[in-house]
Design brief:
- The chain is an alpha+beta fold.
- The chain has a single domain, classed as SH3 type barrels, CATH 2.30.30.40.
- Strand 3 and strand 4 form a beta hairpin.
- The protein is globular.
- The protein starts with a strand and ends with a helix.
Length: 88
Amino acid sequence: MVSETLDIQVLVRAMYDYESEDATNLTFKKDDVIQVLAQLDSGWWAGHCQGRQGWFPSNYVQVLGDDDLDSQDEDDPEQDGEDLDARK
């Protein structure tokens, strides 16, 4: 099992709910955005989401590209407010 720690920030969006009873795994809901911390060849990735950290199956998520992140910012009214404040 080879672990690759990531030098760049990779964000993924959950395509399905994932609930685990194992405390080392990360439970999340569909559409949650997860920061990937490490990847195993087995398909399990380590991530951080909503203040929690743990392992999750990579086939439950989709890697977000720049276009996905831009549209997410447009949908987030809190982010829009921050942009307006920054222009003052």
